[in-house]
Structures are given as C-alpha cells and as structure tokens.
Design a protein that fits this description.
This protein is of the alpha+beta class. It has a single domain, classed as 2-Layer Sandwich (Alpha-Beta Plaits). About 15% of the residues lie in helices and about 20% in strands. The protein contains two helices and four strands, in the order βαββαβ. The longest helix has 5 residues. The termini are close together. InterPro entries: 4Fe4S_Fe-S-bd, 4Fe4S_Fe_S_CS. Its cofactor is [4Fe-4S] cluster. This is Dissimilatory sulfite reductase (Desulfoviridin), alpha/beta subunit.
Amino acid sequence: MAFKIIASQCTQCGACVFECPSGAIKFEGEIYVIDPDKCTECKEAFDTQQCASVCPVPKTCVPD
C-alpha cells in the first residue's frame, strides 16, 4: 500500500517533498502527487509517515 495526497486539501507548501525518504512525491501540473511504486510508507526508515507528519493540514497525506 502507498500513501496519497488529497489534492483539495493540499496547500502546496511542498514540505512533504523534502521529507519523503523515497523521493516518491513530485509536483505534477498544479498538484503534488505520490508515486505509489516509489512510496514505502517510510516503513524502512521511520516509525511514522514523514509526509503526514510534516503536512500542515491534518489528513491530507493518507493511506491509498
């Protein structure tokens, strides 16, 4: 399973891009998206998902 970004809630701050250890988040068009093939849910690197932990809007980075 991977995480996804709820586009309607995203403020486009970009904080998640810099925190993602697998480089799975990128800006496409006018929204940030998480590549499900790259997303590891931070399981190998952290105890919590870094995108969700740095996002200023709760429940914007969620399990897909």
